Predict the structure.
Amino acid sequence: MMIVMKAGATEAEIQSVIERIESVGAHAHPSRGEEVTVIGAIGDLEHVSRLGLEGAPGVSQLVPILKPYKLASHALRHGSPSVLDIGGRKIGGEHFALIAGPCTVESRDQLLTTAHTVKSAGATMLRGGAYKPRTSPYAFQGLGTEGLRLLAEAKAQTGLPIVTELMDSRDLEPVLEVADVIQVGARNMQNYTLLSEIGRSDRPVLIKRGLSSTLEELLMAAEYVLKEGNPNVILCERGIRTFETAYRFTLDLTAVPVLKELSHLPVVVDPSHAPGRRSLVEPLSLAAAAAGADGIIVEVHPQPEEAICDGPQQLRTEGFAEYARKVEAAAAVAGKTAFLEAAAAA
Ligand code: PEP
Ligand code: MN
């Protein structure tokens, strides 16, 4: 149930509604918009209905949320998008994030070269995996804590916020020391204990859509984080399994406007993992930005031929600045503000 407050509702009226919701054991999730405050009441609907909140001071109307996801739903924020602030870089609404970096952290030189290149080109955040979900247990599994240490060094040198994957809640503590955004990989999208654990921290989280997951399942994954009190969730489309075999996964760009219809959360697109080929990364990035994505998370490497993983799809550091300019122009088509110059100077 959503309780929409009147435009002029006072703080005392808002607090009183919150207290009444909580008095019946339900959870109140206030969302303060520019004009109105909306309070999501999550819990036993019957108990909340019996409170008689219609007509209470400051209350405009009660609206049921019909979707199975409540806190992730578009209705919760009355149609206004969530804007997240990640170390001073905004994402959502008119703000576009360009998240770039290697698939995995391989060495100090590889990471720092990439970090400085993407920073000076105007990327807003640095990605890089220290814990890697690999299809083969015999493949490189990531540098682990040493990778995290290198990411911390890259952040100290460039000021770029770090996006890195957490695969196992036993690694939460060291990851929290470095990550500005915790990435939940496609293969972990339905790891509900991991999502809940991250939900109990307040760290922003980027949830990648599972290889065969519906958008509703992705939104339910987000709901697990939101339910624990962490409002900082970013959704990520990264390609799904279809019958097509000409490339690795089908990047579902329809998901971008549809997720925005269904949810207030920012939506980013990963144009690297779906095609698995460098030549397709730029066209997919431009299409995603023009379709209204709130950001791109893309793989970049100084020498992709020597990369330990995902070499064929990683953009070269050389040429990244030109790529970034094209992405900025495509994002402008969808109404996003220019970001490269400010990010490079930050
Ligand atoms: C990644 O971003 O490094 C990654 C492994 O992606 P995904 O979980 O989408 O396969
Ligand atoms: Mn990768």
